[in-house]
Structure formats: structure tokens, C-alpha cells
Amino acid sequence: MPKPIGELLPAFLQHAATKHEAIQQLQRNWPRLVGKQLAAHTRPGPIRRGTLTIYTDEPGTNFLLMLEKPRLLEKLNSCLSPAGGIEEIMVRPRDIG
Asked: The pTM is what?
């Protein structure tokens, strides 16, 4: 038998709030986490299924991010609460203005 929405909604809202807080933490700490040079050309995007999307305005930045991936994953996860866990990074081009 399906559960009433009143039983499902609190857990859904808590999950959404946790993800939102994780993204805010990354945005606040981005220059410290990736360094000023990379921060000038990148922005953190959504976290979905343990994968953080990073937007970049320069093609060469993708290469730098992949070189730094193990260190970057460690730094990102140390910034987040335990619920934020990032397992993978996906880089996408975007004007970050």
C-alpha cells in the first residue's frame, strides 16, 4: 500500500536541504579548495548521485582538474558534512562570467 505524502515529505525535504547546504559550502569555499587560478575559471554545479559537476570557461581547465582529481576529491569531501560525499567529478563547458 502506498505511503501517504505526509510520511514521505519530511525525508524528501531533509535530503533536499542537505544537498543544498553541500552546494553552498562548496561555493563559499571554492577558491580555497581549488586555488585562485582554477577558481577564476570554474564554478561548482549540482551534486547528483555522488558526482559533482564543475563548470569551466576554458577547455584547458578540464585537463588541470583531471590531473588534480584525487587531491581535489579529498579536499572537497573534507569541506562537506559526511552526507555530502563526492565520489566523482564531471567537467562541463559553460560561460561562468
From this structure: 0.77
